[in-house]
Design a protein that fits this description.
Blueprint lengths: L1 E2 L2 E2 L2 H49 L5 H14 L9 H5 L2 E5 L2 E5 L2 E5 L22 H8 L1 E5 L2 E3 L11
Antiparallel strand pairs: 1-2, 3-4, 4-7, 5-6
Length: 164
């Protein structure tokens, strides 16, 4: 094939199309992988909010201990494992009961590491961005921090009163 007075072989053109294919495949793969990581975090949060909502609707007059017990059962039914959430979720879990009202809340942060966790960390897992080298700099810059605050409270209009 003759282009602009130069002879190009079919093999040269094939190599260029292979490069373009691999580039677009890598770009698409990166987008799908990051989408999966983010979807998983949001899906787990949605399941917890669903459990909180079920508890405040069905256990409005229960004690805190009863709500916690029922919560563990619902976590099992919804296939929610303790490893799906950081320890921060359970540390910040708040259950308040007052008469016929139940309020359940928590807050936690999920960090997505698209190219893996930073390797140069202290004993407690922390690091300072200025001390990073090589690929760890890229890992730190590409990480995504998501914050969640699942919350549910009994709807006062659903509370049945014994008054005539």
């Amino acid at each position: 094939m003759l282009v602009n007075g130069r002879q190009l072989s079919d093999r040269h053109e094939q190599g260029f199309s292979t490069f373009k294919f691999l580039f677009w495949l890598a770009l698409l793969g990166t987008i799908v992988w990051n989408g999966f990581l983010g979807f998983n975090a949001y899906y787990n949060n949605w399941k917890v909010e669903d459990v909180f909502t079920l508890l405040v609707e069905n256990k409005a007059s229960a004690s805190e201990a009863e709500v916690r017990s029922q919560m563990q059962k619902l976590f099992g039914l919804k296939y929610i494992s303790h490893k799906d959430f950081p320890e921060e979720f359970f540390d910040n879990l708040s259950i308040k009961t007052s008469g016929s009202i139940v309020e359940i809340s928590s807050n936690y942060q999920v960090t997505l590491w698209p190219v893996g966790r930073v390797e140069e960390t202290d004993e407690d897992g922390s690091y300072h961005p200025d001390d990073l080298n090589g690929l760890d700099i890229l890992r730190d810059k590409l990480r995504v921090d998501l914050e969640f605050e699942p919350y549910a409270i009994t709807d006062p209009s659903l509370i049945q009163t014994d008054a005539p």
